[in-house]
Amino acid sequence: MARLTSESIERTRAAADIVEVVSAHTELRRRGGRWVGLCPFHDERTASFSVDPSSGLYYCFGCQAGGDVFKFLREKEGLEFRETVEQLADRYGVELSYESADPDEEERRKSRQRLYELLSKTAEFYSRYLWDSDEARGARAYLEGRGLDSDVLRDFGIGYAPSAWDRVLTSALRSGFSEEELAASGLAQKGRRGGYYDRFRARIMFPLRDARGRARGFGARAVRDGQQPKYVNSPESSVYHKGSSLFGIDRARTHATKAGEVVVVEGYTDVLALHQAGFQNVVACMGTALTEEQVAELARLARVVLLAFDADRSGTEAMLRVQRAAAGRQLELKVIPLTDDKDPSDLLQADGADAFAALMEKQISFLEFQVRTVIDSADLSSPAGKDRALAELSPVFEPAPPSAEREEQLRLVASRLDLSEHLLAPLLSRSPAAPRSRRPIGAGVVAHGERWERVFLAMCISNSEHGRDYLSRLTDDHLSSDVLRRARKWLAEHFDAPTVGLTHDDEQLAQAVSEIVVRASGQPADEHALEVDFLRLERRRLERVIKQAGEAEEFERQHELSLRRNEMTEAIARLMGEADLQRARGGAASLDSIRQESDA
Ligand SMILES: [Zn+2]
Known about the structure:
Mean pLDDT: 85
Number of strands: 16
Bound molecules: zinc ion
Helix content: 40-55%
Strand content: 5-15%
Shape: globular
Structural class: alpha+beta
Strand order of the largest sheet: 1-2-3-4-5
Distance between the termini: 45 Å
Radius of gyration: 31 Å
Low-confidence stretches: 430-445, 586-600
Number of helices: 26
């Protein structure tokens, strides 16, 4: 894939209004040069999230989430880095350029671009045809019969393919697309005598869009009696891969990231009916099981994935297979238990939105779902049947980490199998491994000393006159972590525009610099404050050296160093007195205000 030039990434970053982008996720109020609000990354009641429009960065003093507008969109809307750049460039009218080191690659990119254009034009054509043509009357009646309003159908771009053999073909050729492009997009296919004709005819068309809303292919449903097969999909192409497609993802994306959960159903009309009823974090997988690619896509949207598949055997098996595709991901799978062979769309039509809301409430853990599935199909009337059930349950319980939920399910199995719990537990639990917990990047407590160092780096950045000088006086020995050493070096080299050129190759550095720059935007630190804090860091450095000298039994050196440390303490006290005096006179002394915030 052709890389975006770093220059065009920078132009996009500069053009994007981070306050506007963030405001879609949390309400921001202006405070001085910054905007503050409740953090959209963690639950909180007092605002510790701030956005600094001048640097284009955000930072949360509560959970340490921080970064630029690209990172924000990646984390909030589950887009890839490249997608966030392309989306923002679209939105803010930035022309992107790509590194065309490989002319073939550039060629492929352009030809994919043409296919997107062709597919999007065709989707619009199908949609118009659904509403305007006489021929689509049956299709309209079918969709209406499913309880779907024109609003939701138009919103998702549902359409109808004419029954003629060449409507799409001829109109695309007229618009300047070639037969080869039509074939490559999957819209046309070659006949036995060599001519091309429309692949989709007399069918309801569901555009399959990616997370960015680009049509990549279609799902097509038969409407006429005897028309076979009932469903046809676009063939695999350079832009469409069945295994990674999720119907409705472009519409569900922001709702899912906001809710922290995404619902997966089986059919197109389920998605449409649920959206219409106000459940907007819903996508369809349109297959018998979710693939690993689809699961990866879902994991980018939300941490909790709710499966609402049909209650029949194939739906149940499909759900059980999801677990395999989800293995190794930080993803919580749950199941919404559908009943009576009613898919969500039937249910909504028969019993209304409240009925589905009630089902959502009844969501069960994946473990419970597995246990129920085994128990429900087991013959519990004979000892042999119970043994078989136990054999099936063993691999269900084995990987499940110890939890109240696990205990609960063990009790349930014991009672259904009429066995005592203490007999059952060893049969089902062969020392389950403790779950590997993974802390989110940046979460956790920054050591006290390190926080001090961060504050000082922020103070340097905030003072354009003297900050550079203090940054250069600071050495690696003053800093207690490697990431802060990298940050110091970076800030010294990029003093005037610390965020420009920051990439996500070094996530820790990007995060530290973001935090420092947002901190710095609070209020500028004056020279006094810089001097005092520099001396404090210097004293801490000396203390470390003194300790080392003691450990090495270099007592004479240790004594000399101690004298220097005492001088420094006096100097600090003297300077502090001056700072107090200045504050009393109403001068700027921002050090404490910055520090108070950081300690809050
Ligand atoms: Zn936060």
